[in-house]
Amino acid sequence: MNRSAPTRHDEAWRYSDISAVEAAWPLAAPESIIVPAGGNFARTILQDTGSIHQLDIAVGKGATTAIHVLNIGGDYGRVELNVTLHEGADFKLGAVQIGGGTQNLEIITTVTHAEPKATSSQIVRSVLAGTATGTYLGKVAVARDAQLTDSVQSVKAMLLDRSATANAKPELEIYADDVKCAHGCAIGELDAMGLFYLQARGIAPADAKKLMLQAFVAGVFEGAADEDILIEAALKKLGELV
Amino acid sequence: MLQITNLHANVGDKPILKGLTLSLNAGEIHAIMGPNGAGKSTLGYVLSGRPGYEVTEGSVTFNGNDLLALEPHERAAAGLFLGFQYPVEIPGVSNVQFLREALNAQRKNRSEAPLSGAEFLKVAREQAGALGMDMDMLKRPVNVGFSGGEKKRNEMVQMGIINPALAILDETDSGLDIDALRTVGDGINRIMRKPDKAVLLITHYQRLLDYVKPDFVHVLADGRITRTGGAELALELERDGYKELAA
Amino acid sequence: MSDELDMRDKAAWDAAEKVADYEHGWSSDIETDFAPKGLTEDTVRFISAKKNEPEWMLEWRLKAFALWKTMTPPDWAKLNVPPIDYQDAYYYAEPKAKPKLGSLDEVDPEILRIYEKLGIPIAEQEVLAGVEGARRVAVDAVFDSVSVATTFRAELERAGVIFRSISEAIKEYPELVKKWLGKIVPMHDNYFATLNCAVFSDGTFVYIPEGVRCPMELSTYFRINAENTGQFERTLIIADKGSYVSYLEGCTAPMRDENQLHAAVVELVVLDDAEIKYSTVQNWYPGDAEGKGGIYNFVTKRALCQGQNSKVSWTQVETGSAVTWKYPSCVLNGENSVGEFYSVAVTNNYQQADTGTKMIHNGRGSRSTIVSKGISAGNSNNTYRGLVRVAPNAEGVRNFTQCDSLLLGSLSGAHTVPYIEVRNPSAQIEHEATTSKISDDQMFYAMARGLNAEEAVALIVNGFAKEVLQQLPMEFAVEAQKLLGISLEGSVG
């Protein structure tokens, strides 16, 4: 493990709030989770205090793992997942980060398809206001011989103010030929026509915006055990920004 | 009810409406017909306040008030409803949530008490039923995955729930098969043909007018009303085309 | 459609039948003058003196050399490159029979024969073979370290177009060169660009005056012939207001067991309403099937879209080189400026490519399109690396990126590393990436229609790359289609 705190030259920390990282250094060892063959694991991470979460998850043969993340609190918040998938395993991530003011929030995932027939699906939504920075570094690695991998990644970010920053790196590293990997990333503002449609039905601009933003993030938590808590916390945070 | 006087409007830098004058009274149904590119949809958007549609000259009053001074949502609260030619898909927002928020926002603007969930659902069920729309569709995200016909029907359900004073219906008949056309036509008559309401039907073809009989038909060409007549003018247009009449 | 098929039939199929590993892999016996082996300040002085350069140029080179000695090679690319011994190479090689530029009659006939063998139309009357009604193309032929011929000079001059070797331009148009040289790719930009500043030997200079649409396509053909020799060319193209030029670049090198270094810098400047279309077919020697030899291709290409409505379109077909490190980029400063990057990169055997682009959106309403098609075969690794950045004040920016990878065989690697950094809410940025292989059904279908396996692969790969290939000028498109087929030979069992 790294003895000294990372710098911006370290790829996984290139957009981080380095002084906050240094203050938190050294970090505790990442939480290690082993999901046995055929097992099911689910976890909700609500980062609302400004902390660094690191999880190493090994998903055994035919096992499933679902992680839901809401990254909203503190000056610097980071959720880092290092996931290894064994044969036929399935990993699902639904993550939302919402930042305002000078917050620096990031979600970093490395999903390694180490063996054949594993599937992964990652959905990440960011909403950023003020001069906040929201980063998603997501790497999907497919090992040699991890044939029949099926991986999808959908990354979207919405900026509410000029000088808010959205960074994204949806990365693929592929060493097997019979794989299906599709990545999409979109950064933009709320659909103007949608906003007008809502207003033409009588909804005030700020409420229309809030409604669209709710829709933007809410679906991500579908199926989470704590779905209601996450949605409530997300909406409260959105309410503070709009 | 609606008085449009010498209206000029640009989209970007391009002038589209060039001195349009039109007056609608309560209890009347007007149809605006015209060739593609005449400015029909622009008129609907200008009246409902779509950003990017800039009025450069003229005035519009709605029940005596300056309509153009209002924000889009204020125009809706004042009783104006635009039926979109291409209803917008809003993923993640259910029809029910959308309509309840819309209706209660308008009621709030008019200092009326909001409807409770139960009251709202009752109204929604009535209107959906009358237009032959499944309640399941009301729970789905707004227009997402709807066919063209379903979207238009959904616009009518919304109109029924919101119950506006003036409806501007932009090509509401496009993309409808004959059965859907009748359903939508019946819906317009049922909801809007009342002494205190008015309708502006924007259409390219006269077939909707078989179901919704207009009191007046106007020809819009090159940003102006070039001719006005009764319902028979629509048939004339259908027979002779726009070219001769626009001249 | 049928024209296209005819062309593919005639040219590509013929080529695909050939067994040749690397068509341009022969070397020629040309008497050559070398600079002393190795790299010192004296090497830099030697090159500058050889070119009779003005003092300011020498000083600029020496400054770069001093800077370079303090730098380290970049290590972030997904490339495995053994340390390069910069002292074990020649930095300057020039054919002994010195040509007087501008007069083809005086070029060493042996060199003319080489270009002829490469199929490059160095004689002015020549039209590219096999293409009906082909446009004429003016050529700057760079042989090892020097430009040996630039054609159609007189006709271009009548249009006001300056088309010269950069060595000549430094002497003839010092003000223009001084104004822009090193302004798009700064001297300190990166290790290889700095090295190029110190030892660049020749290259092409183009100036298109205001309002001029260049009457023909301009091109440079690079040939590394001499052994143990690096090539460090430098290209500067200036498109003044309202002008247009289409520029083509092709490269070949002989088969040699040792690795040869190619570290070029290309700078483009585009002013208001001007456009440069820059097309490259890179076919340097890729090394043999065991990964021995081949060119190390470290290239810095950048365009400055300075004027409003300015546009640069980079199209590249990268089939050669043992190692490719190359990111043709656009700095979109001008309002409503446009950057495009269309790339096909093929790697086979032990080739490694790390290539992509940067689109830096500083101007309001600037737009960019990125289409990258990576094809990996054999034991090769093929990486798309890109950056799309939107500055806080750049309103209304649009970017669309499509990165597709095709893997042939299970021993290769295909990687996508896109960086997206957005600081303005009105931006609309879209990135899509897919990875696929040639399906058995596709192969069977093509073979059931009578193609052999290699022809089937060539056909499917050409289809995969079509969006990019159709950006190329027609003559280049034919060559590129051939190349894709040849590059993938031996990749299907």
Per-chain topology:
The complex is a heterotrimer of chains A (242), B (247) and C (493).
Chain A: H1 18-24, E1 31-35, E2 40-47, E3 52-59, E4 64-71, E5 76-85, E6 90-99, E7 104-113, E8 119-128, E9 133-142, E10 150-159, E11 165-174, E12 180-188, H2 192-200, H3 205-218, H4 227-241
Parallel strand pairs in A: 1-3, 2-4, 3-5, 4-6, 5-7, 6-8, 7-9, 8-10, 9-11, 10-12
Chain B: E1 2-11, E2 14-24, E3 29-33, H1 40-48, E4 53-62, E5 65-66, H2 72-77, E6 80-83, E7 90-94, H3 95-109, H4 117-130, H5 135-139, E8 141-142, H6 148-162, E9 166-170, H7 178-192, E10 198-203, E11 216-221, E12 224-229, H8 231-240, H9 242-246
Helix pairs in contact in B: 4-6, 6-7
Chain C: H1 2-17, E1 32-34, H2 41-50, H3 55-69, E2 93-95, H4 109-117, E3 137-143, E4 146-150, H5 153-158, E5 162-165, H6 166-172, H7 174-180, H8 191-199, E6 204-208, E7 217-223, E8 234-239, E9 244-252, E10 259-262, E11 265-270, E12 275-282, E13 294-305, E14 311-318, E15 323-326, E16 329-332, E17 338-347, E18 352-361, E19 367-376, E20 381-390, E21 398-407, E22 413-422, E23 428-437, H9 440-448, H10 453-464, H11 466-469, H12 474-487
The number of helical runs of chain C is: 12
- Helicity level of chain B, as a percent range? 25-40%
The CATH topology of chain B corresponds to Rossmann fold
Strand content of chain B: 25-35%
Quaternary structure classification:
heterotrimer
Order of strands across the main sheet of chain B: 6-9-10-3-11-12
| Helix run count of chain B | 9
Helix share of residues of chain C?
10-25%
Class of secondary structure makeup of chain C: alpha/beta
Number of strands of chain C: 23
Regions with little confidence, pLDDT below 50 for 5+ residues of chain C: 1-21, 124-135
What is the CATH class of chain B? Alpha Beta
- In the CATH hierarchy, the architecture of chain B is 3-Layer(aba) Sandwich
N-to-C order of helices and strands of chain B: EEEHEEHEEHHHEHEHEEEHH
Structure, explained:
The complex is a heterotrimer of chains A (242), B (247) and C (493). Chain A is α/β, with parallel strands linked by helices. Chain A has one domain (11-189). Chain A has four helices and twelve strands; from the N terminus they run αββββββββββββααα. Chain A has helices at residues 18-24, 192-200, 205-218, 227-241; strands at residues 31-35, 40-47, 52-59, 64-71, 76-85, 90-99, 104-113, 119-128, 133-142, 150-159, 165-174, 180-188. In chain A, helix 2 packs across helix 3 (205-218) and helix 3 packs antiparallel against helix 4. By secondary structure, chain B is of the alpha/beta class. Chain B has one domain: P-loop containing nucleotide triphosphate hydrolases (Rossmann fold). Chain B has helices at 40-48, 72-77, 95-109, 117-130, 135-139, 148-162, 178-192, 231-240, 242-246; strands at residues 2-11, 14-24, 29-33, 53-62, 65-66, 80-83, 90-94, 141-142, 166-170, 198-203, 216-221, 224-229. In chain B, strands 6-9-10-3-11-12 form a six-stranded mixed beta sheet, with helices on both faces. A four-stranded antiparallel beta sheet of chain B has the order 2-1-4-5. In chain B, strand 9, helix 7 (178-192) and strand 10 (198-203) form a beta-alpha-beta unit. Helix content of chain C is 24%, strand content 33%. In chain C, helix 3 packs antiparallel against helix 8 and helix 6 (166-172) crosses helix 7 (174-180). In chain C, a hairpin with a 2-residue loop joins strand 3 and strand 4. The longest helix of chain C has 16 residues, at 2-17. Chain C is built from twelve helices and 23 strands. In chain C, the strands form three sheets. In chain C, strands 5, 6, 8, 10, 11, 13, 15, 16, 18, 20 and 22 form an eleven-stranded mixed beta sheet that branches. Chain C has two domains: 1-29 and 452-493, no CATH class; 31-326, no CATH class. Chains in contact: A-B, A-C. At the A-C interface, strand 10, strand 11 and strand 12 of A face strand 22 and strand 23 of C.
